[in-house]
Every structure is written in structure tokens, then in C-alpha cells.
Amino acid sequence: MDNLWMENNIIVNLLQVAFYEILNGLWVRNGLQIKGQAMTYIQCNFCNSMVDADLYLLQICSTRIAAYNFLNTVIEKFHVKEWMSLAPYQAPQNAYLEGEHDTPMLESFLTFLATLISVRTNLGLSETALNRLEMVTLLCMGDKTHSQLMELMPERCGTSQSRDFESLLAEVADYRAPALEASGNMQQGMYVPKPLIWEKQYDPIHVLLRAVHRRDFQTSMDRYTEYARQANKLKAGVSPWPPFRTPTDCAEAYEDPRQILKSRVFHAAALIILYKAVKGHVSEHVMALVIFLLEQAVIISQQEDNKNTKMCSTTSQTQNQLNDMDLTNWFSVDSLFDNLRTVVGRVILTPEPDFSPITYSSDSDLEWENSEVDTEMADITIDDTKMLTLGEGSSTWNSNQPQSSGTDLMVFRGDQQNQDSPAMESTPTSSVLALPSTTNLPMEVERIMSVALPAYISVNHHASSSAEPPALPPPAQLPAITAGNEVSRAVIWSQPGTSRKELVPTTSQNHRKSYPYRRRQTVDRPNANPPSVKVNESIISLLLRLHSQLSGIPDSYNPDDEEEANTSAADQAPIGDGAYYVEKLLRKISMADTTCKNCIKETRMKLWPSQEERDEAQKQRENMEREERRRRAKERQQKLMAEFANKQKQFMEKAMEIDENSEGMEEEVLVTKEEYDCVICNQSTPSTEEKPMGLVVLIQATSVIGHRRRYGQPERSTLPTCEEEREFLRRDDTLAAEFDRRVEELDRHFDPQSWFLSVNLGWDGGVHVQTCGHHLHLDCLNSYLQSLRSQQRQPALSPEKGEYLCPLCRQLANSVLPLSPQLGDKTQMVRSKPNESMSQILEELSNFLRENDQKPSTSNMAEAIGKVMEDMSSSTQLKPMFKPKSEKPIPQSLFLFVTSIARTNLEVELIQRGGSLVVSCIEPPNPLLPKRDCIVPLLHVLAVHARVARVLAMWPAWMTFQQLCGLPAKVPITALAPIEREVPLLLRDPIALLLQFVLLLPLHLDQTYFTTTVQMVYNLLYYQVIAQVSCGLTSAERMRAASSATKGRITNLCDSLDFINECLGQTDLYMEDDSLSSEKTQINILALEQQVQKLCLPFLRIASLLKYHLYQQPLPDIRTSQSEFVRLVYYLELVTESMDWGCFNASVALNWPSDTNMFIDSPRTWCSQFASFVSKSQIAARSFLVDQHIVWHPPRLLQLPREYEKIFTYYHERPCSQCHSVPQETSICLLCGTIVCLKQNCCKQQNVCEAVAHAAECGAGTGVFLVVTSTYIIVIRGHRACLWGSLYLDDFEEEDRDLKRGKPLYLSRDRYQLLEQQWLAHRFDHTKKTWVHHRNAL
Ligand SMILES: [Zn+2]
Ligand SMILES: [Zn+2]
Ligand SMILES: [Zn+2]
Ligand SMILES: [Zn+2]
Ligand SMILES: [Zn+2]
Known about the structure:
- The chain is of the alpha+beta class and 1338 residues long.
- It is 46% helix and 7% strand.
- It has a six-stranded antiparallel sheet. Strands 3-4-6-5 form a four-stranded mixed sheet. It has a three-stranded antiparallel sheet with strand order 10-9-13.
- Strand 7 and strand 8 (684-686) form a beta hairpin.
- It is elongated and about 130 Å long.
- It starts with a helix and ends in a 5-residue tail after the last strand.
- The site of one zinc ion has 7 residues, from strand 10.
- InterPro entries: E3_ligase_UBR-like_C, UBR1-like, UBR1-like_WH, Znf_RING/FYVE/PHD.
- Ubiquitin ligase protein which is a component of the N-end rule pathway. Recognizes and binds to proteins bearing specific N-terminal residues that are destabilizing according to the N-end rule, leading to their ubiquitination and subsequent degradation.
């Protein structure tokens, strides 16, 4: 066994100690590599073969060889022997123990002991229990994903960990599903330890064993503390000690390694550490470890006592001579309970074996600093009468040398030793050659000879009553790992002058300040006797002192409430601070041994003798409790106040929001100009021509609307994952594709001067403007931008493109929308005269259109309005044909562009509202809808440009209006440039017409004018829809419908169908169908009526949004899609009187000037205009009409399959359709399904890689690509790109980037929805992702 021990000795040396040394930074010079090796040593994958195996071997050793032998060796290997000295000064001869390193090594030594005695990995712990422990340990260090747990669980040969993995996981952890944040932060599914784990199973020792980094342990303690606080298991402000766990019993084949704690060597070491702890030289973590070890010693000794009959309890041996660092001989027995009571009196210090005769100038600063530290360490007395110590010439003295110098040398047995022992000069680093000598020495020898200490050595008794603060840093500042309680502790320790005076009664009268003692001085006088330190403490007395110190009250331990505490503590998991654990230990001692119990009582009386003092203690205890109660009450109060403040803040915010909203409504009362707060200079001013204010806006191109698909298909197209689906995915059924075809046709049949004014564009590459709602002076913004350009702080920001972050909310912006001075100024409102007839209003509207031209201006406001228009133009991604070309620009294109911006933004808002104005009462408020919009300021800016463009185009908008209404033309047509091929009114887009009129009319018209305009456009829309619907009917069906019509009136669908049939029935519009009129022909008028209403809805929605924004009329509360039409026509005042539901149909919303024949004449004019086009181009006319109004689905991303495997299988080897090679990183556009060669040169054109080019083409600069090989989504937004995350997660809602783990992955509905929402809401730029400039290289 001894041979084996020798070998293991080396193992200890090489592995365990080295490991702790490295962690403590002793091997710094070896660089980082050595640290890496230490990490490998404990890493989970290797721990089975490395650290655990070593530990097992050591545990076996510890039980097979003499405990004192084992312990002494360990103490030396950890280089803590020197630390165990009570001498005030520690010679620097031991290179390991310089300054800061001694506490960490001591801590490591105790950690090692605690690990040794409590780990049961190979000592009979069941496999399940072991796996549970490992899992708990991992979870306590941090929440983990399923795969992290799988990966980090230590592997053991021959065990099937997966068998009980899931059941254990369910037992110890709760699953926390990933939450999605609006900012775009995405979490993965996590496992978090159950509350019970923290109470019962969190094992700090095992965490320390497995923690790769020290901070992992710290984290686990922080988490434990947090749990304890939240669960109210801890008094507020108190930091818990690590809850070290009592180990289970070993398997029968093994002896309990705790046996080593029954050694007197350990007892002596514990006493020394406690002694230093009371002096304040030890971190709380070290205290916690010692208390734990002592507790285990009590438990194991108790077990032993129960087995054996009690040995004769030896009485105290205080008279024995004790030598410093000679731990083996401080106690004469191994009985714990005896040793707990044993009072250690005086300890003889060992002269320093350094022979160099150096004299010190004692007043050197350095010396003073050191000495203060040193003398603080112990009470050194010069007792010239009784104290004896070993003389230098004595042989026993010499034989003692090797140990005290802390070196490992061959044993020289006492008798043969001569004075100049080579041991004294040998280097302390010499390798381990043999067993330490101590154990072989007969104890008596050492005790015989003691020599009185000569008086001339001036030893400073640095009494604790000294006014000088101790130079030693309080233990809180030591590199301890005491769970972050440093701050609270430091408070206690920082007042040693007061508290310690009471706690450590001084026994010496010698208070004089004298020169610090230097052991080296003995060198000059070979006969000098070593000094001594008076300890006069037992472990019990030290524990009592420590308890008092930790709780901050003298005589704080109260053994009387023992019983009640015991009953409650039995079933409760231990959670508490230092005082709690010391108390627990003391109670355990009292329970286990009555002699000790009595000793505790006696010691208390001795330490705090006077009744007065005890009363004082009692009072203080009560005070503390009262204080604690008061503090808790205060805390509650503060919490309440904070809550209240928070609520108030929310209320204020809400109120402000309401204020801002209601400002518009109260405008009629307020005559003063509206003021805005500038977020840069904080001043509130109105926006004026000279000093304009603006809204912070982000302008971007959008193709979201263009991705609407035709109604009738499944709402979502599917990303094909087989050939069949590939056939099915159509690219031509989107609004963008439809519009392209339409434009081509329009251009073929009509003059651009006309058709440019008949449509809107911007479905594909339109301009979207959004705001965060913050205002600023344009001047202020300019200086802000200037400073941004010079600073260039945000790497992803491009100030040269005008980009900046809103100074207030930090949202991305790239322009500013000037606020017209007329905004909110109701004095400029154009009011209608009361009781005007409709004809008069139409007349006035016509005049407004003719007269309301933009007056040229050079004000700052005009400049700003020009600037934002420039920003909008440069941001578009419109097809070249609409962009003003240098060679052949037509003024109409500018007008088209301007009105289309209004259209795009209204349509986008509609999409963000879910595609209709129906508000679901079940679903939460739409997350897509921005909190603040800028439609009205935008319309003001657009109106200025529209008027300018109208003049440039020389377009008589008022004439179009007159045509629309059927008013007689007042100005001879000959005065105008004739348009040869004009688009008939029946083929013009009614929404485009409405927007044109709204932008050309004064924006502050009375609502009556707006309503009338909407009514006029609705009339046209209605007949367009009727004509379109009639094209879907056979002539027989048309005849059938007409047969039930009332002539001369338009009151229902049959009437209007009859009217259209009358006007157009004779043309070639209707393809001759052979089916003759038969009796059996049936027609479902109800279904047709519904279709008519459905086709009218898009116009009604946009008109309603306009009214809502321009006049701040709250939108109707529409709950079902069936009621949308009727609610909107009432909202728009197309119908004002109530009527029977049975009479209601789309035609009742028609409005014509009364007492005129316009209700027949106007539609007839439109029809004849169209009929002449039919006669020219029959097929085109019909196809225009048939596809005039289309119902679209809201835009959607492509539907993805549930299993990722389907995507991978189908796409990972699919060639790109452009270069026909298989891309390295195949990526699929989720808007259209196109495969692109991400980052590859093969498909690079004009230095732009394929994904970037496709994003521009397909999404107007916004691209959403699925990278097949990595499962990740890449989002391209303009000149930036980001890695968005994965839509596919495994069973535990974790990502598997690059498919490294190869788990089956399933579509995450939440993430998919989030991605789509961000796309639809144009919010990619506002997500908290890492955006980088892609430089066209994706
Ligand atoms: Zn300002
Ligand atoms: Zn802002
Ligand atoms: Zn695409
Ligand atoms: Zn390609
Ligand atoms: Zn390619």
C-alpha cells in the first residue's frame, strides 16, 4: 500500500495540485497552453478517464493509509504548510506562497478535501443518481438547450445515458419555450432547473469539480442566490453560503473517505484556519469549506461512536508544548469531540532557517507595511518566565527543521543530526523524495525542551485595541468566490476596531508600539529562543467567535432555542449565510456529544462573561431583528413606490398618445398653430416657411404589394419540394406580373399622356415612408448629420446616404418629412356653404381643380419639400420605363409617380391592417400596424409636387372631373392639346382618379367636398364593376337579369345590368355565345350582387383610410367581412339614410345631383366612350374590362414544408437556372422560390452577386433567402444584410445551424410568422440583428 501511495503521491502532485496551481495563476509563465491542458483535464468528454479516475485512486489511498500521513502529504503538496504557521511573518522561501497566492491555494486545498470526501462517483453511486447529479450540475451553471445537455453530459464507458436521459431531464428541469420579441430577438428552447433542485440537489462541490472556468461556479452561486431570494428563503441583503451537501454512504466495498477527517492533523488545520478566520484573514468561501468539513467530521465521528463503545474520553492536554506548523502533534488523540474542546494554548514559533545576516532599517516604508500586516496575524508575546522553546543546538530541534521549512527532504533521524543541517540550506523546490519526517518522530521528544524567549527581541504586540486600522485588506477583497456577497460583508469587516475589541479579549498587557519582529534577527544570535504565539482557543471557542463575528452581535449563538431549531431544520433544505451554517454546526456538535454541549455553554460564559454583556447581546439581537423588520417594511414600501411610479409613467405615456391623437380632433377649437417638440434642441415651435420642422422618416423601396396573389388560389403558394409542386407554383399570378402585362397593353393601345394618368404604379419598387413619430428642426438635423458624417461611429450606418438614427428612439431613418405650416391650421379650411346643392358643390370642385395651382416659392420649406421628394425618387426601384428618362421624359410620369407614392403607402397600411378594415375581436391588436403614421404630412408634400406636375403636364384635371360627373364642358375642347388615343373612363383606375383629385384639390377642404368627390368616383366604379360582371354572363343570362329590371330607375343589380346591356349589348364586347335564350336559364342575382360588392371593396377601403387620416374620423368597428361593405358605404356617406336590409345593394350607394338626368346620362357617356374603343380593338377592350378589378390575397411568404428534410432533399443538389451548376450554398428566395448562387462568381453580373441582384428585382432591395445547407435565413435590406436565424428547430426548439447535429428539424410557426410580419411591416431595418454592408457580394 505504501508503494502505491508513493506512486499516487506523484499523481497528486502532477495532476490535482498542478491543476489548482494553474487555476490560481502560479504557472502564468507557461502561457495559455497550460491552462488549456488543465481545462482538458476536467472537460466532460475526458473526465471519466482523467479527473474522476484520479479522484477514485486518491479516495482509495486516503482510506488505506494512515490519515495523518495522507493529510500531511496533501498539505505539503498544496504548499499550504507555511500558511498553517501562526508566525507573523512568512518567509518568502517558498516560492509558491508569495503574497496573493496563499489564500487561493488554501482554498484549493480545502476544496480538494471536500471533493475527496464527498464525491461518490466511483464509490457506489448508482448510474441514475450519477447522471442526475451531472445533469443538475450542468443546469445549475446555466440554462441549457437540449443539445447542449446531450453534448455536455459526461460520457462513461459502458453506460447508456440516453436511456434515462429524458426521464431525468423531466425530473430535474422545466422546459422554457422560446419567446419571440418584437425587436426580433429570438430564443431557443431552454431547460431551466426546477426550484427543488436549488434546495435539494445543487451540489457546489460537484460544480467546482466540473466547472471549466471559475466563473461557472460563480454563476451557479449567483443563480442559487437569486433563487433563494425569490423564494423568500433568505433574509434580504444576506448572501448565502454554498450549500455543500452531505454525501451519501459509500458502497459496502469501500470505506468512507470521510474517515480522514477524524485525523488530529485535520483538526489542527481546522483550528488554525478558524483562528485566522476570526482574525479576519480568511475569505468566507474558505470558512464555508472548513465549516462543511467539520460538519462532515462530526457526522462521521458520530457514526463511529454509535458503532463502537465510547472510548475513554481523555481530559484536556492544554499543558502540552505545541510547535508551529507541527499539525500532527497539536492534539494527542484522533477523537474529534475531544479535540473540539481542547484549548490550544501557546504555540512555539520556529526560527526562520535563513542565515543571511541582513539588517533591516525598521523605519523603511516597506518594512512598516509588512510588519503591520504580520503583527496583525497573531498575538505574539514575550513571556520571559514560563515559555520554553527548542534550542538550536538540540538534536530534536534539528530534526524538526525539515518540516518547518516546508521542504520535502529525506528524513534525517534526530540523533544523528548535527547543527548545520543541510536541510536548512536546501532549496525548497527540491523534488519529493521521501515521506515527510513528522510522522516518524516520537511526539514526546518535541515536547521536552523549551527555552525561554529572550527579552531583548522586541516583539510587537499589536493589540487589537490599537487605533490603527489593520493594513491587511479585509477578506472580502481577497480573490474569494463567495457568491458575490463581498459588498455586504465588507461592511462588517471594515469596522474591526470596534467589533473585534469585544470579540477577542486580549490577554496581554503589553500594548506598547515597538519595532516589528523579524525572525531573521535570530540568525545573529544562535542561542536565541524562538518566540511563541498565545492562542488559547479551542475549535468550539473559535466557532462561537466566528458566529458572533458573522452575525455582527457578541454572544450571538443561543443554544437555548436549540430544540425548536432542530425540529424545523430537519426537513428543511439548508439555505443561509455564514452565521446560519456555523450555528448548524454548533448544534450538530451539541447534539452529538453532551460533553461538547456543556463545553459550548462554558465557553460562552468565558468569552462573554458578564451578565451585562449578555443582556447587551440580547438587546442587540432584538435590535437586529427590529432593524431587519423595519428594513423589510421599507423595502416593501420602496417596491410599491416603484410600481406606482411605473404605473404613472405608463399613464403619462398613454395620455400623451391620446393628446397627440386628439390634437387633430380639437383643431376646430384651437386656432393657434400646432407646435412640435424638436428632439435635438428640445424647443417647441410651430413649423414655418422659414424654419420648417419635420418628421423623422425612413424611406425605402417596397415590392410587398406586388407580391399579392390572385384570389382563388390557395392563400399561400407553396415552396415546391417536388416536381409536381414546381409545376404548380405560378409566378405570373402576382399583382406585379399582372400589372406588367396591363401596362404593356395600355401602352399598345393608348397614348402615354393619357394612360399615365389612368393608373397607379409602385406595386413593384414603390416608395414606402414610415416614421417613429419624432419631430425635429430641419436646421437641427443638418448639424446633427454633419457631426455624424465626421464621427462615423456606427459601422453599419451610411451617413453619406443620409442615414441617421433618430436622436430620441435610435430607430434608423434616412430622411425628414417637412410639416406643412397649414397642417392642423383650421383657419385655412375651405368651408362649404350651408344647404348647397350637389350640383353647386360639383361646380365648386371643378373650379378648385382649375385654380389650385402651386405658386412658386424659394422658402426653406419649399426647399425641404423638394429634398424629400428627391430622397423618395432616388429610393425607388421602379422599372426604367417609369423613371424620368433623359431622352424622352414626359411630364405625366412625374405626376404618376407622385400620386402613386400616396397609393403605395395607403395600400401598405391596408396590408398591415390585414388586407381589410375588418377588426377581429378574437385576435390581439395587429402587430404589423405602426404606432404612428405620416400619411397626412406625406400627402401635403405630394400635393405640392402633384400640382407642379399637373401644370407641367398641362393636364386639365378639371375636365376629367367634369367628364366624370357628366357636367357640361365650359371651355371649348379645341383650346387644349388633343389626345388622340385617350383611355376611356370605364378603364381608368378609380382609386388613382380619387387620389389625383385629392392631391390637386386644397387639402383643407370641408369634408363635404371630399364626400362628394368619393361619391362621383364611386358612381364610375359601380358601372365599371357592373360592366365587368356582365362580361362573365352569357347573353341568355343577361337577358334573364334584364327581364326583371325596372326601366328608368337604377335601384338594384338587375336595373344596372339592364342598363349596361342596353348601352353595350350591341357592341362586340360580348363574345357571341351560341346558347340561345331558353326558359331554363337561371341567374343567381344574390351571388352576383355579392361579387359586385366584393369588387367595390378595395376602393371603399382606400377611400375610408383617406377620410380617416384627412378628417380624423374614427374608422367603423367592423367585426365580420360580410358587414364590411355596408359599414364602409355608410362611413363614407355614400348612403346616409337607414334602409331595410332587403333593399340594400351596391346601387343604393350611387349618388347623383337630384332633379337631373345625370344618373342615366353620365354612365351612358362613359359607355359610348368605351364602345368606340371596343369597335377599334374588341379583344383588348374585353380583356381590359374583365381584369379591371381583381380581388387579391394579401402578400405572403411561400408556404414551407413542416419537415426540413424535404427542402434539403429537393434543393441541396438543385442547379441554378441561370448558370446550371449546383451552387455551393444553394439559397432560395422565399418570396418567389427562385434558386440563387449565394456569394458565387458564376452568376455575378456587373459585380453584383445573384442574391443581391435578385433581392433588387424580386423585392425592390429586400430579399429573404433560405440557405439550404445551413438552415439559416439571410435577409438583404438595401445595401445591408443580416443573418436572421433559422425557421427550423428540432424537437426541443433548438436551431441546428449548418445541420451539424443532424437532428430532424421542423418549421417553427412562430418564427415563420415573425419573419413574415417583419417583411410585411417593412421593419427589417428596425430589428436588432447584426447588419453588415454586403457590398453586392451575396
Ligand atoms: Zn431643434
Ligand atoms: Zn424616433
Ligand atoms: Zn424572389
Ligand atoms: Zn445562379
Ligand atoms: Zn451560378
